[in-house]
Amino acid sequence: MNRNKFFDSLWKQYISVTPQARGIQALLRRRGEEIINDHVAFRTFDIQGFSLETVTGLVAEIGYERFDSYVFPEKHLRAHAYRVPNDHDAPKIFFSELVRAELDSDSQAIIEEITSPLTGELTLMNLVGDYLFKRPTLEQYSRLTDASEYAGWLSTMGYQANHFTVNVNRLRSLDSIDEVVDLLVTNQYRLNHVGGVIKGTPSDLLVQASTLADQIRFEFKDGIGSNVPSCFYEFAYRFTDSSGQPFQGFIPNSATAIFESTDRHP
User: Does the pLDDT at position 1 exceed 90?
Assistant: First the structure.
């Protein structure tokens, strides 16, 4: 699979569970915008063959290399960031994994059960919307999500992009992330307020905002259907670094807050 085909397939899957993204793109296009994607993000468990160790080789198949790593102790997560060398227009990839050993024993047992069907190694095709897990019961989902919203999300949504990101620098009719936020609020999109609607500062070289995830219907193993969070849309503005180029990395404090875009919200 080449890079363009991968991202085209990824986008089609993403908007199938994230109707707000289609609506926001339409809103921006009516203003004459051509939307450029800054990055996409994926999640996984630290399961052999499906961990970050495997991911680095996997994304190399479409030209990506790792350029930074992060740890999120409060979320029990670690992550790698990937980019295509010498191609600033290629969207970056942010891939995180849950460290199972940092959760309580009941949560670890639930993860072990629902991931029992995983065999072999993660593939690019898996990332385009594959649900490879054993479905949890509603009780298992609730207990797991109480321990880790991230783990609960992954247990129902499986492997797919949890968000795409509008490159605000490339917008022509909106000059700042503040103007993007104003447009979203005016059009009644629900935003993530954790740590402030706008996360980061110019001194961080990256400012971000995100919507709250849409909801989809999920049928649990015990036959109970319920709405669960799906995916969200992010917006990023990058400032130039000491080399005069746009900053390419991510800010852990901001990323920690953005993870909560897929939390259960009233």
Answer: no
